[in-house]
Automatic annotation (TrEMBL):
It holds the Pfam family ESCRT-II. Belongs to the VPS25 family. Residues 1-17 form the signal peptide. The lineage of its organism: Eukaryota, Metazoa, Ecdysozoa, Nematoda, Chromadorea. Keywords: Cytoplasm, Protein transport, Signal, Transport. It comes from Diploscapter pachys. PANTHER family: VACUOLAR PROTEIN SORTING-ASSOCIATED PROTEIN VPS25, VACUOLAR PROTEIN-SORTING-ASSOCIATED PROTEIN 25. Transmembrane segments: none annotated. One of its GO terms (biological process) is protein transport to vacuole involved in ubiquitin-dependent protein catabolic process via the multivesicular body sorting pathway. Gene3D superfamilies: Winged helix' DNA-binding domain. Chain C. Domain 1 (1.10.10.570), Winged helix-like DNA-binding domain superfamily/Winged helix DNA-binding domain (1.10.10.10). This is Vacuolar protein-sorting-associated protein 25.
Length: 180
């Protein structure tokens, strides 16, 4: 059902989207906000955590083949600049071709993981990163399948708030201990 709902939303938004950047500043801001929301919804629906911008620019997200319309490279850049300004994108290279896309920011992921740990009685108990993102106990959790780099950012935000301690990072047995 969610797939059908998302597909419908994508069709409506892309069909009604302005595929050329609007010259009026207020209109452009609303346009970029709508495109940014669409990109975030698309990433969430497809559980995308890392994007290659040039690959993404050729998908149905920015390219409506039925209408024979696509957002220009300048438009795609403007959307990603907007996402960066609103802290939904973190570039992985200086040429801005690959990025982490944060439909949930690392601190939000951290809160969800921490709530799961508390709810499952895992305070002061070491957990491997694999258990958190791939384990049988997290299959129903939204962070199941979360990319390791994003998980580490989430756990570092917990560590900064004294809610976790990272263990053996960059080893075969990477983990975390959640604190009260």
């Amino acid at each position: 059902m969610i797939s059908l709902l998302f597909t419908f939303k994508l069709l409506i938004l892309v069909k009604n989207a302005h595929f050329s950047l609007q010259p009026t500043l207020v209109t452009r801001e609303k346009q970029l906000e709508a495109w940014a929301r669409l990109v975030l919804d698309y990433a969430q629906h497809n559980k995308i955590y890392t994007l290659d911008v040039s690959e993404c620019a050729t998908t149905e997200l920015f390219n409506n083949q039925k209408l024979n319309r696509r957002l220009s490279a300048e438009g795609v850049k403007a959307v990603f600049d907007y996402l960066e300004q609103h802290k939904h994108v973190e570039w992985l290279d200086s040429s801005k071709t690959r990025c982490h896309i944060y439909w949930r920011r690392p601190d939000e992921w951290g809160s969800l993981v921490y709530e799961w740990a508390v709810g499952n009685g895992l305070l002061n108990t070491p957990c491997t990163l694999y258990e958190i993102t791939q384990g049988d106990d997290t299959v129903q959790e939204s962070f199941h399948g979360l990319e390791k780099e994003v998980l580490l950012k989430a756990l570092r935000s917990l560590e900064a708030h004294k809610k976790a301690v990272l263990l053996n990072i960059n080893s075969d047995n990477e983990g975390v201990k959640f604190l009260q």
